[in-house]
Amino acid sequence: MDKFIEAGKSLANLFLNKRAPKGLFLHIQKTAGTSIIHIAQSYYRFGMISHGDHVGKPPKAFRNLKFVSGHFGYDFAQQLMGDRYSFTFLRNPESRILSMYYFLRGQKENLFPMYKLAKELSLTEFLRAGLTDPMVKQRIWNNQVWQLAHGWANRDGKKVEDFEPNQLLDLALTHIECFNHVGITETFEKDRDIILNALHLPLPEEKVVSNVSSRDSKPLSEEQAMLLKELTVLDWQLYKVVCDRHGRG
Length: 249
Description:
By secondary structure, this protein is of the alpha/beta class. Helix content is 50%, strand content 8%. Strands 2-3-1-4-5 form a 5-stranded parallel beta sheet, with helices on both faces. It is globular, with a radius of gyration of 19 Å. It starts with a helix and ends with a helix.
């Protein structure tokens, strides 16, 4: 009987896949996006990409896919946004950095240099590096603004250092207007349901939480708190604009 139930679910998913609108998800790391990806994978199946699948390929390579997601920035995403329901998520900027640090430390250090570096650095050292070390800076220095202003996998090879801070913020504030929905991690389930309804996908029966990073429960030191504020000045401005828009400030 279980086999028949699973077969029925597969047929239903296939039907939903055919009638679902195309989607595009600009997935900023550690903003609860993996939970969305896992839901999408049940319905889009092989007609989608996620995380780093886009690396080394041009946007046009994915034009025929039903669902495109990845850790790319706006310059990459906007080339595919035309006929797609597009969305992204923002998160409390300081919480995102802490989550990123503990996520990186939890990975196998031989996979990427960033994983190895995070294991070698204390939290304070990691935050300091976010102001000076290019490899760390591109992941935590106002990363949400950077991804929505220009971001990774761009066409011109520009890095975050190639822009003035105010220029980055202005671009990010302009670009969020181009998305159908900008969600907030802190109200994830509410935003998730809006997105899934727009994509004609069923809502999960149970709470889905993926890729959660456990963190040290010790309170932050004064220096750590100051570094977090310095690293997120622009991100906080963007985050508050989106929160105010949704009446969640």
